[in-house]
Design brief:
Layout lengths: L1 E4 L2 E4 L2 E6 L6 H14 L4 E3 L2 H8 L7 H19 L4 E5 L5 H13 L4 E6 L3 H7 L4 H6 L21 E3 L6 H14 L4
Parallel strand pairs: 3-5, 3-6, 4-5, 6-7
Antiparallel strand pairs: 1-2
The protein binds adenosine-5'-diphosphate.
Length: 187
Amino acid sequence: MSESKGNLAVWQGGTVWLTGLPSAGKTTIAMGLAEHLQADGHRVQVLDGDEVRAALSAELGFSKEDRDINVRRIGYVAGLLAGHGVTVLVPVIAPYALSRATVQDLHAARDLPYVEIHVATSVEICADRDVKGLYARQAAGELSGLTGADDVYEVPVDPDLRVDTQHQTVNESVRQVRALLTARGLS
Ligand code: ADP
């Protein structure tokens, strides 16, 4: 939803968290969505998991505790941006329900819109896509603690939307998320 200030549309900010396994399609959907939203005049920030980890959480590993801290940090930054009218797209695994809930609560406490999207691609399809070669490395014993393979992913019980990428084109998935944002006054 936008209000008009002079000729400028001022959009309501908010955070859209795309959670799911590695290679589920989180980044692809976020980038596609960002293009659409920017074309319509939104201020958009994608908080890429690898980039933000390198910038804000380089000292952290992939234990439960470290993953939780990382997710809370990202959630905090997302909230700051959302509070300034930015649509923040967060394609980050966030495997634990409690840390996702913490981020949601942080937004609720500031009355900021928050949408949880479960990019619900099966581990078999993700391992087949294996965009970064992580599943192959895990299978070869070169890496451990890979979410969905040998580490926990707590499936969201009640997300705002589940996206079934294995039966959709990228454009269809992007449109599905966009439709939800429109319904929530975020687009
Ligand atoms: P993630 O960010 O979840 O680790 P990526 O977005 O980097 O995953 O990779 C997902 C891969 O799946 C990409 O190669 C993308 O083209 C492909 N893909 C196929 N169908 C879809 C879809 N409907 N939505 C998103 N990605 C899809």
